[in-house]
Amino acid sequence: MKRNKMHVPGTGVPDSQYSDSKFSETTSNPPVAGSSTAPQASLPDDGGHTKGAGGLTVPFMLLSVMFVVCLIVSNLIEIKTVDLGWFTVTAGLVVFPVSYIINDCVVEVYGFRKARLMIWVGFGMSLLTALFLNLAILLPGGAEYQGRYGRDLLTDLFGLPGGYFHERMLSYYGDINLMKGGIYAADYVTTVSPPYAQEIRYDFYAHGLAGVIADNAHKLRGILNGIDVGRYDPWRDQRLPRLFNARQLKGKKDCKAALQTLAGLTSDPNVPVIGCVSRLVPHKGFDLVVDALPELMATGAQMVVLGTGEWRYEEAFRAAAWQYPGRFSAQIMYSDAVSTAIYGGADLFLMPSVSEPCGLSQMIAMRYGTLPIVRETGGLKDSVQPWNKFTGEGTGFTFTNVDKGDMVWVTRQAVELYHADPKAWKQLQQNAMTADFSWDASAKQYEEVYGWVSGT
Question: Model-level pTM greater than 0.85?
Answer without folding.
Answer: no
